[in-house]
Each structure stands twice: as C-alpha cells, then as structure tokens.
Amino acid sequence: MSSTQERPPGNQDARPGTRERLVRSTQELLWERGYVGTSPKAILDRAGVGQGSMYHHFAGKSDLALAAVRRTAEGMRETAEECLSGPGTAYDRVAAYLLRERRVLRGCPIGRMTQDRDVVQDPELRRPLDEMFGWLQGRIAEVLAEGQERGELAAGLDPADTAATVTAVVQGGYVLARAADDAAPFDAAVRGALSLLSAQLTSNTDDTTHH
C-alpha cells in the first residue's frame, strides 16, 4: 500500500490569477504550518503578490483562510467520493477510500486545522471542517447500508458507528504516523480496520473482496 502521495489541494491552472495564487498559497501553508503558523507575510511571499493585492480580494487573513479551507474541503470531498462511488462491493469502495494514496507524514489538511485553537474557536473557520467530517461519515454510512441491503454485510453491523470508526482510523493514523515520522502506523491502522470490516462480510460476498 502506497501512502506517500496525495493530490495537491485545488485545481491546477497553467496561469492562475492573483486571487487564485493567494488561495493556493494559503492552502499549502495551512497544511504545512497550521493557521497560527501561517502569517500574512508568508502567504504574500508564497503567492508572489503585494499586500495591496491581498486586501483587494480578501478582508484579511481569516477571510483568506476561510476560502482556502473551503477549497481544501471540496477537494477532499471529491477525492473521497471518487473512491466511495466507485465499482465493486461496499467493502471494495470503503477499502478504496482507506487505501488511496496520501501524504501521510504531512497529516490531513483538514484534520490538522482542528488542532488550531484559533480555528476551533472561530465558528466560520470551523464550519467547513465540521461539514467535511459530517459528510464523510454520512457517505461512508450510506455505502455500508447499501452493502447490508444487498446482503454483502452482516445485518448486525451499525453503518453509522462503523463509518465513525473508519473516519477515526484515518485521522488517528495520521497522528500516529506523524508522531513516529513513519507511515507504518497509518498503514497498520488501515489494515486493522479492513480486517474488522472483512469479518462482517457474509457468505454472499465474493471472496475477491478480501484484500
């Protein structure tokens, strides 16, 4: 399982405008440094624009950060949906999400924001985070419920609780991997989650779903 790459946040245009450069630079810096560690000067330097340009498009750092977080959340949602709406059984689709390539040692670009006190205490900045995790858990629960309806997964499985577990495994895996400076704990957590989920497969599910 490869856990070293992840699609860069946002769309990649050949010649982005000033506003786009500001948003992308803020996305990158928030992922690297968090909200508190991302200064307006660092954003301007990364984007290669002047201070006047920033305040022409945004009211300030918080406004720009909100646009960047929303963009990152949208990108993460699109990536997750590609896996969860893909082919195969419910197990296959959840496994595709868990096994997708990630930059594990950089952490989750959205999960890391929850570690910033300034973000958590700001309802506007926190909202995209809550919405992203809420959507993700709900979407995984839908996939698992579909698997139950098709007789792929045991009737006793709780889709909502299991979806929360899958989400927690990913976020906790990021933390453990960063603490160890090694992707191995993340990969181990994913393997464990898949092993637990595979135990819920019924005899109606083809053996090829086991990975």
Features of the shown structure:
about 210 residues; mainly alpha; 9 helices; elongated; disordered C terminus
Can you summarize this structure?
This protein is mostly helical.
What does this structure look like?
This protein has 211 residues and is mostly helical. It has helices at 18-33, 40-47, 51-57, 61-84, 90-99, 117-120, 123-149, 159-180, 184-198. α5 runs antiparallel to α7 (123-149) and α7 crosses α8 (159-180). The termini are close together. Residues 1-8, 10-14 and 207-211 have low confidence and may be disordered.
Structural class: mainly alpha
Series of secondary-structure elements, N-terminal to C-terminal: HHHHHHHHH
Largest sheet: none
The N- and C-terminal alpha carbons lie at a distance of: 11 Å
The rounded Rg comes to 19 Å
Strand content: under 5%
Shape assignment = elongated
Poorly predicted segments: 1-8, 10-14, 207-211
Secondary structure blueprint with pairings:
Layout: H1 18-33, H2 40-47, H3 51-57, H4 61-84, H5 90-99, H6 117-120, H7 123-149, H8 159-180, H9 184-198
Helix pairs in contact: 1-2, 1-4, 4-5, 4-7, 5-7, 5-9, 7-8, 8-9
